[in-house]
Amino acid sequence: MAATGTLYGVGLGPGDPELLTLKAVRILQTVPVVAYLAPPDSRSQAREIAASWLGGQREVPIPVSCQADRSQANQAYNEAALILAQELEAGRDVALLCEGDPLFYGSFTYMMQRLAGRFPCVVIPGISSVNAVAAVTGRPLVTGNERIAVIPATVGEDALRQALAGYDSIAIMKPGRRRARIVELLQETGRLADAVYVEQATRPEQRIVTDITTLEPTPGPYFSLFLVSRGIAA
Ligand SMILES: C[S@@+](CC[C@H](N)C(=O)[O-])C[C@H]1O[C@@H](n2cnc3c(N)ncnc32)[C@H](O)[C@@H]1O
After folding, report:
1. Which of 50, 82, 153, 171 has the CA that lies 20 to 30 A from 177?
2. In whole angstroms, what is the distance from residue 53 CA to residue 95 CA?
3. From the CB of 169, is ligand 1 less than 6 Å away?
4. Spatial separation of the C-alpha atoms in residues 176 and 118, rounded to whole Å
């Protein structure tokens, strides 16, 4: 029986096309098929990060919005899994482009659930947005005995309050339309001065806000996060 192809989950890092690993670049340049999430209403960030490393392979856009509800997203992943399975069955390797790290809040997990039992699956780790935000703001994520929590803004205010009160460092992912409320929670928990807010870290559109009180009281873009940390001790 002919060998099947391998599914690669390729971590592309947070945006700067120089923040890919050598391994990610090698896989991108050698696989015959690349697939990526293609939100219907915007460009594929993963495709853009990888663009300078691609070389005319077959491309399979997966039409799913980052903000789709679970059942819409599941349907898109099911359909994409069928298409990718055809490529893998034909013996062709497939690289699924993943913004940041594939297994850190990455939709790669959902494709792996559908395909890894049937085909070889290899994950190439990538630099996550949390690491990127620490780097571009020059703030240590954690030092010594400090503890860190990573928490999506979508989990609710009680969980956010507990994280802000109980951890030295907190990365608040996916602030989106809850951005203004998060500023209030930072104030409430006494963590305002510890917080920085970053949009589009390492991309040309990058925006760093160190005085959180100046943030517009409006929803923010999808690619943004708050990093709360103790900073560098004097
Ligand atoms: C579905 S998660 C994907 C995380 C990604 N796999 C990673 O390793 O960082 C999307 C969230 O990650 C954060 N994010 C991803 N890239 C970012 C960037 N370049 N700048 C700021 N936040 C980013 C935002 O909070 C966004 O809502």
Report:
1. 50
2. 12
3. no
4. 36
Please identify, among 86, 107, 124, the residue that sits at the C-terminal boundary of a domain. Answer: 124
When divided into structural domains, the chain yields a total of: 2
In short, whether 36's Cβ falls inside 6 Å of ligand 1 is: no
**From ligand 1's centre to the CA of 175, what distance in Å?**
10
Q: For 134-158, what is each residue's pLDDT tens digit?
A: 999 999 999 999 999 999 999 999 9
Q: Is the whole model's pTM more than 0.90, yes or no? A: yes
CATH number where 204 lies:
3.30.950.10
Six-digit token string for 13: 């890092």
Q: Is residue 131 lining ligand 1, measured as CB closer than 6 Å? A: no
CA of 3 to the centre of ligand 1 (A): 35
| Span 199-223, pLDDT tens digits | 999 999 999 999 999 999 999 999 9
Q: Is the C-beta atom of 15 inside 6 A of ligand 1? A: yes
234, part of any domain: no
Tell me, using a 6 A CB cutoff, whether residue 108 lines ligand 1.
Answer: no
Q: Give every strand in the sheet of 7-11, ordered side by side.
A: 58-62, 33-37, 94-98, 7-11, 121-124
CA distances from 89 to 37, 95, 142, 163, 172 (A): 21, 14, 44, 45, 40
Residue identifier of the C-alpha nearest atom 27 of ligand 1: 174
**Do 11 and 106 fall within a single domain?**
yes
The residue segments making up the domain with residue 103 are 7-124
SS3 content of the chain, % helix, strand, coil (to 5): 35, 20, 40
